[in-house]
Design a protein that fits this description.
Order of helices and strands of chain A: HEHHHHHHEEHHEHEHHEEHHHHH
Keywords (chain A): Iron, Iron-sulfur, Metal-binding
Organism (chain A): Shewanella atlantica
Protein name (chain A): 4Fe-4S dicluster domain-containing protein
Radius of gyration of chain A: 27 Å
Distance between the termini of chain B: 49 Å
Structural class of chain B: mainly alpha
Order of helices and strands of chain B: HHH
Chains: A alpha+beta (506), B mainly alpha (102), C alpha+beta (408)
Number of strands of chain B: 0
Structural class of chain A: alpha+beta
Largest sheet of chain B: none
Largest sheet of chain A: 4 strands, antiparallel
Oligomer: heterotrimer
Pfam families (chain A): Fer4_7
GO molecular function (chain A): iron-sulfur cluster binding; metal ion binding
Strand content of chain A: 5-15%
Chain lengths: 506, 102, 408
Amino acid sequence: MKDDAQIGDEATNSSRRNFLKLGGIAAATATVGAGAGAGFVLGRDPDANIGWGRTEAGKDMYFNREAFEVDFPPTMEVVGQIERPEWGDYLFNRAFSLVKSIKGGWVPSEDWTQIPDLRVREYYAKYPKRWEEMLLSFSEKVKHDNNIEKHRDRFALAWAYSGAYSKGLHADFPPEPTEHPDVDDFKWVQREPKEFKSPKHASKLIKQMAFKFGMSMVGITKLDSNFIFKNMMRGMPEWGDEIPKHWKNIIVFGVPMNWDPMYAAVGYSTSYDAYYRAKMASGLMAAYLGELGYAARPQFPGNSYEVIMPPLAMLAGLGESTRNGILMTPEVGPNIRLAAVITNLDLEHDKPIDLNMKHFCESCKICADACPSGSISKADKPDDVVRGVRKYAFNQDGCWRFWNQGPTPSGLGCRVCIAVCPYTRKNNWIHALVKQAEPRDPTGVTRNALLAMQHNFFYYPDAESFHPEWSGGNFASYHQPPEWMRSEEYLKVEKTWEYDGNWEGF
Amino acid sequence: MFPQSTLLDPLFWMVLGAIQVLVFTGANQWAKESQLGMNWWKWSVVGFWWLSFILTIAGAFTLLGENEGNAGWYVLGFVGTLLVIGGAAILKVLVLLKPNHP
Amino acid sequence: MYSKKRIDFWKKVASLVSVSLLLLAWYCGSIRISDNQSDMVDQLLINGELLTQIHPRLYQGTSANELSPVEFIGLGSGIGYGGITEVAVTVSSQGDIQRVAVLSSKDTSSYLDKVLQSNLMEKILGENIKVSLEIDGVSGATVSTNALTDAIKQAADSVRVQVFGFSMLENEEPVSHFRWLDLMAIAMFTMAILVNKTRHRKKSMFNWAILLSSMCVFGFYSSSLFSSSTMGILISGAWFSGLGNYTSLILLSLVILYIIVSNRNVYCTSLCPFGATQECLAKLGNAKTTSLTNFFFEWFPRGLLLTTLCLGLYFRNPASFSYEPFGIMFGMIGSIYLFVLTVLAIVTSLVVKRPWCRTLCPMNPMTDFIRFNRQWFKSILNKQRAKREIMEANQMADVAVKSNEVSK
């Protein structure tokens, strides 16, 4: 009897063992499948679209900057006397002035000394080679205008998306200043100032409000006069280099461009979506400050500034300076569009950060290789000094020339350097891990390993393929356009094109 | 697996976690049967390998999901192959370090 | 089943057909090529409208409203992995480089792509040829880079000499291409022969040592193992005009020679870096030997190799046609399809011994082909000798008979 029981026990034991063994294999297989499936949907997860997902709670700004705070941004290396920017340093000022002169009957020639506007002439005296690019931009614009309508079938939905935000952007809120800043900035003030408990309290509240008004990122810094334009004051026909006394602090905030269109730059992308939101937020913020009794002067895109934004954003701890000259943040890389409000409210300042981006840009160079106009420096180290600060050389006129070639209806904007940047990645777990690990690794091993993968595993179309067909490209983009921008999916059009860019790979 | 689903997503992760118990009891059974003499560090190596393996698969598919097709397949092929080779190496070591039973 | 004699007959037919197909591909390729160089150069004009050749390596472009030439186009060539790379450089009348175009290249396209993607050519745009050109290297594709760099420098010099009247090209010695790797190839091959001949009890250990060092040197370090494209280079004669790297060709020639001389292939067992990789993985995974004596696995690689070689000959670019996982394995260079193949080969090696060698490797068809023809040739020789012997015997007999008759 005893033996029988033992045999019975052994039999159940062995079947139990077999069950466990096979169950383990089945569970392991299921886990592999679940890993693949969960991974795939996490890649698709709209929650990863920073700025278009979980903004209101301020959870877009997920990177804890505290550990990286420094007194001065490492990518703002001052090597001489910092000079305030001139009116002519601002590309749009030059471009608009030139267009005005041309409309007034002036015929541009290869000789820049014939430029009528002295302020524009002064700029090209500094950079005579760039005049060729500016000159080309005029002829390229004509070529663009002659060709662009032929491609409406392909880009109809993208243009509609961009056009809608453009209309929103050009609405009259916040209104442009029309008077002296000492008057105009106080037009928002509705009541007597209400005193805050402390600048710290004020900053805490203001930042929360930036999030509530739809901004992904916000930082506050003292308004450094080095980054205020000379000879420029909206609402004033003439202006010298004086700075209004009530311009104490600046609240800098921003939002990324919508991700899938941005990745499909040039033709399918637009800056207007983010411009629109940033501009609205600056108006809301100004009104909010006014309600509490403080002066406010919003700075907003496309073209309404008295200050240069990126260096101020750096001082406010939003990010660092990069090879392509755009502010690079840890959350969204250079995919950020800024607006700001200058105010007389006393605020606690944020500190600049050091995320090692300096070294990252030195060894990456992906944006420079992809740049359709070759305007970004490929040097190993920053190779230019601009107004006393060491930077990578950047040819703004070459960049502008390609804007005029791009297959957007307005012929404005490119955004390829933003799309291809390895830091411009959605907030999903792999990129979040990487973005947390890289700045914390002092040895650079993580950076080199990641960049080796970037260079070898990722597909980047050639710089030339980003061009439109009429200037030698194939409308390539880093990612193919999202489904909701493909006209063949929704409109009665005949698809006569192939997409060149990354796609899901099945 | 169900990112926008309020109910299914947490359930999915709980079930996935529970399944891991099965995976490791099963592995334990195999280890016992082949008399590998598992101990804490052997289990940590195996566990670490399993985690890396699943994360690599999930990571590659995340890249595919965000339309980085090229990168997804390359990561899967490259890191995956390294891990498979690493797995074979771990197995070999486990077999070599098998305690001699009387 | 077919009788052995019948199979032998069909093999002879196949051997002859292969050779004729290769010759045909070569012939058709030479018809395809017409002299379209000046057509290509014509498209490189930027400002000029009229192109005239003023020297075999130099064109000048003139525009309608100016008398003096507005730009020059110099041609230059460098020696790459698969042969000559030809480049045209458009230079303004002031000497600024305005455009660089690759006219032809015989290098593997993925290597060339890597060089082109590195924007090596874009970086020199705008540079003036009156000073010497600084051109960066591209890691992982050194030979193709050197070819391109040499070609650009030569093209710039064509313009420099004719237009500005001085040269800045250092004359390179032709032997500079013969490097220590080539010596290494010869040394390792000799050692492989010795190891295969020895009856030492540690023979297998020696074999492992040489296999592993070959994997490091010809694999991971220099990625200079030969492939079907090397075979193509060998039979197309592209090496005659010079190659950027002879190591793989030397290895291949030695292997072929040794098979012809001794009927033995020492490369696969003792030298092949990819074979070594598979062996290592087999050790790791306790892989089993499986024999694949299937008709398909015997003839498919033969067809594949023949097709590849024919394509290489037809397009006069054997380096562009290869299907081995070697480039990915030892340099991460190649298409995504080759990448998949490589991953498959590597992972399978853990459970099956040398899966690549048993299926697609072009080495087997090549060895089989040489051995078969060697045998055939030998048997012909034997037959002739036999015939001759019979004839001689007959003659002797005749003579004997005659002498008998005489003596009678």
